[in-house]
Specification:
The structure holds two protein chains of two kinds. By secondary structure, chain A is mostly beta strands. Chain A contains no helices and eleven strands. In chain A, strand 7 and strand 8 form a beta hairpin. Chain B is globular and about 40 Å long. The chains are: A mainly beta, B mainly beta.
């Protein structure tokens, strides 16, 4: 069974760093792109970027380029999304999803709250 | 950068009604278009990919059509469990860019 399991909810202060994770199982992790999607409270889905764990080829939405870093560790079938300095406006639910003709499997989401 | 629009932004229909949602790309995207359903408080779910291919396990009352710039998602007979927000997403296989539309909220009248 294909599964993407994300790390738990986080509460951080502005200026802090954060790295959240997405662990894949039940399929060949290195053979499918993994994307990240932001959903701010009460808002729509925003595509952030995508990584191919096989060779770490990474693409970013222009809206998120330079704001976040996407990475992967294929040895442990895990993709990451990280921030070096969080802002209150980063408060959102973040989803990872496997890309295969659209995003066919999704993680359960990681809620990130940034508040002083 | 290719932009995606959806119409309407929201709609209210009766159980059993035929519902159509439109998605438009600012430039041609061939058939690289997916549709998702997101119920309140839940994870998005893939309904259709390649504009018209139904994802496994999705009820046959959902269908998609279109190519180029104009696409539609149709629910042939709206059911109470279809209350959700529906998003289109364009994907560029070569550039790996996956922009979402703004969403269409569907309610029961």
């Amino acid at each position: 069974e294909v599964q993407l399991v994300q790390s738990g909810a986080e509460v951080k202060k502005p200026g802090e760093s954060l790295k959240i994770s997405c662990k894949g199982s039940g399929y060949s992790f290195t053979s499918y792109w993994i994307g990240w999607v932001r959903q701010m409270p009460g808002k729509g889905l925003e595509w952030m970027g995508i990584i191919y764990p096989g060779d770490s080829d990474t693409r970013y939405s222009p809206s998120f380029q330079g704001q976040v870093t996407i990475s992967a560790d294929k040895s442990i079938s895990t993709a990451y999304l990280q921030w070096s300095s969080l802002k209150a406006s980063d408060t959102a639910m973040y989803y990872c999803a496997r890309s295969y003709g659209g995003y066919d499997y999704w993680g359960q989401g990681t809620l990130v709250t940034v508040s002083s | 950068d290719i932009q995606m629009t959806q119409s309407p932004s929201s709609l209210s229909a009766s159980v059993g009604d035929r519902v159509t949602i439109t998605c438009r790309a600012s430039q041609g995207i061939s058939n690289y278009l997916a549709w998702y359903q997101q119920k309140p408080g839940k994870v998005p779910k893939l309904l259709i990919y390649a504009a018209s291919t139904l994802q496994s396990g999705v009820p046959s009352r959902f269908s998609g059509s279109g190519s180029g710039t104009d696409f539609t998602l149709t629910i042939s007979s709206l059911q109470p469990e279809d209350v959700a927000t529906y998003y289109c997403q364009k994907y560029n296989s070569a550039l790996r860019i996956f922009t979402f539309g703004p969403g269409t909220k569907v309610d029961i009248k």
